[in-house]
Amino acid sequence: MEELVEGFAKGIDLTNFKHPLLSDEMEDENELLQAIKNIDEEGTVEEEAENLKWRANEQFRMNKYRWDKALDLYEQAIKRGSSDTKAVSTYYSNRAAVNLSLGNNRKVIQDCSEAIKLDKNNMKAYWRACKAASGLDKLKEALEWIGKALEIDPKNKDFIQEKNKVEKKLKEKRDLKKKKLQELKAALELKKGKGAIAMDAICQRGIVLGRTLYDTQRQYEGEIYLHSETKELHWPILFLYDEMFTH
């Protein structure tokens, strides 16, 4: 065990470390693992599920190399079919915690939704759903999760702080979108203005515009404009060679 603690503190890869509590297989000759197995087999459904949750928690606490095992154990706990709905809610929200660490944000929201169906007061589920929504840049959805949590606990400092943080991000996002839209509108108006001036110059010169002869031309459309000082009409020209249309 001392070797395990020292290795974990140093951040060493413990994937292949052999210890009864970390083993992926329950071997009959290992007394500790056999005892745990007996508890699984002899306890009630609720006790079996709780034991699986405990083992999953331990796997999650270790390091990222054990997180897949933690997910599997939480899955087993959920499938045990415990009648304790609050406990099952915890299994879902705990699995969401693992997926949140892995960046599986959609799965986090799915599990948190299930957790809240079973226990509407599961505050950790609201928190993790909020974080996952923010991770997906779904800031409005994140605020919805925060709002539901604050309905249960209006004075919760963590959720109040998170609300302020998300609202600030949402405002920045909206301001940036508004700025880009204004820039696009200004560019469009400028282009329209230049186009109107150019069209007046074309009409004054008695130039008659025909229809586009080839769709190819649309790929190379340039801007027709009237030079503000020289009053020269600048007109892009496209040269089409015969070999373009040969096969």
- According to DSSP, the number of beta strands is 2
Chain-averaged pLDDT? 81
Q: Kindly report how far apart the N and C termini lie.
A: 76 Å
Arrangement of strands in the largest sheet: 1-2
Order of helix and strand elements from N to C terminus? HHHHHHHHHEE
The biggest beta sheet reads: 2 strands, antiparallel
Determine the structural class based on helices, strands and strand pairing: mainly alpha
In the predicted model, the low-confidence regions spanning at least 5 consecutive residues are 4-18, 24-29
Q: What fraction of the residues are assigned to beta strands by DSSP? A: under 5%
Count of individual helical segments: 9
Helix content: 55-70%
- Identify the overall geometry: elongated
- Which value, in Å, is the CA radius of gyration? 32 Å
Account of the 3D structure:
With about 250 residues, the chain is an all-alpha fold. The chain has helices at about 1-10, 30-40, 45-60, 65-80, 85-100, 105-120, 125-135, 140-150, 155-205; strands at about 225, 235. The longest helix has about 50 residues, at about 155-205. The model is unreliable at about 5-20 and about 25-30 (pLDDT under 50).
Write a brief caption for the model.
The protein has helices spanning 2-10, 31-42, 45-62, 67-79, 85-102, 105-118, 123-135, 139-152, 157-204, and strands at residues 225-226, 233-234. It is an all-alpha fold and 247 residues long.
Q: What are its keywords?
A:
single chain, 2% strand, elongated, two-stranded antiparallel ribbon
Topology:
Elements: H1 2-10, H2 31-42, H3 45-62, H4 67-79, H5 85-102, H6 105-118, H7 123-135, H8 139-152, H9 157-204, E1 225-226, E2 233-234
Antiparallel strand pairs: 1-2
Helix pairs in contact: 2-3, 3-4, 3-5, 4-5, 5-6, 5-7, 6-7, 7-8, 8-9
